[in-house]
């Protein structure tokens, strides 16, 4: 039907041309709350274009970096992450920001340093400026955000004191000024016509402290697999571990945070959660570790929820199986049931009961990751989806509202992968309540599996 053009570009199989060069990275750096993610969103939105796809922003994210273009330049925007820190920014914070920023800087072709014009120059901005002047070898562009008001230019001028050159008054919310800024940023960016796509599978190892993340990481890295340390362009994250298994390349994410944990006492739950969130954002699949010898807590739930929100694949590793005493025939099932019950967000994630310490069943992890990745990238034909839809509707019609209005579903189609996202085209989305939406999602899952990946169902009206 006309008017339902979907601009999500799912390439036809076999049409991908030989890649040549990496796209340049533009790193967005700044203290929390200055509007970095707002700016990143604005830049990467321009990549998608089109109104329907615009609605899907947030559901169709690129896995690690956001792709963007401006004028004739294509690039990735890298958000250095919403760092959360405590009231008195001490060494701990500085180390965190350094670590995050260094990763981004190492591979960046340009840096956008974002500050908050409404708050004025902040001591943390000054620290970041000092840091950038010292560590950064590529051009830095100073964006003074939240300058949508009439005296925006005036507010921005104050930031000359940072010594980072001309401040650009911008507003991530309104979009004012971002054009001039991007013209400037892009002027010096290399133009890449035929970009290399990074093929490594990004795997984050996440979970509460002490569940065995570093032990598992070491296990995965040390087994008789080649550790790939100098593939060009893959070593940029000194904190990530590249591992090859069965001919495929995996990037194990956030190992630095894990490794350095012993050296630096971060302490707060904030840091734990924040680090996990950053790792999740950068991954295709998360290995969510839980400790089989302990009760689960809402920290586990919080992390699980984030995996779902970010639309990442997931494999649950129930660790420390070796330490469970008096195991009998029912122990394994009991453990599985307990984990399922405790993580209702992840009913679709496979559970591997394992021991990172002894290596028991850790060999299964790569296989489970591969399955999850395959499902995460899976495309189902419109014909098959509509068969499922037809069945589902004939079992259970959309209920009419009290006012007698009847929801009608015309058809559905998959609009994106990572995670699989199905758009339902209906007369009026507001006629479909939460429980019917859940029913429909459940039917897709029941019919199509999608084990290891969340799926999304978005409801689109005619206007
Ligand atoms: P980040 O932590 O640097 O990624 O900051 P966010 O992008 O999450 O934004 C932090 C807050 O600033 C949010 O409440 C935004 O709504 C607000 N914000 C972001 N950009 C602008 C802007 O251009 N103008 C105004 N007034 N507020 C903004
Ligand atoms: P992290 O904080 O999640 O990185 O956890 P670590 O990998 O540092 O492990 C925390 C503690 O649990 C260490 O004492 C490990 O030796 C222990 N541990 C990790 N995995 C296992 C396991 O499979 N079985 C047992 N018994 N102990 C484990």
TrEMBL record:
CDD domains: EngA1 (cd01894), EngA2 (cd01895). One of its GO terms (molecular function) is GTP binding. Coiled coil: none annotated. SUPFAM superfamilies: P-loop containing nucleoside triphosphate hydrolases. One of its GO terms (biological process) is ribosome biogenesis. The keyword Repeat applies. PROSITE patterns: G_ENGA (PS51712). Pfam families: KH_dom-like (PF14714), MMR_HSR1 (PF01926). Keywords: GTP-binding, Nucleotide-binding, Repeat, Ribosome biogenesis. Residues 201-377 form the EngA-type G domain. NCBIfam families: GTPase_EngA (TIGR03594), small_GTP (TIGR00231). GTPase that plays an essential role in the late steps of ribosome biogenesis. Belongs to the TRAFAC class TrmE-Era-EngA-EngB-Septin-like GTPase superfamily. EngA (Der) GTPase family. This is GTPase Der. It comes from Rhodosorus marinus.
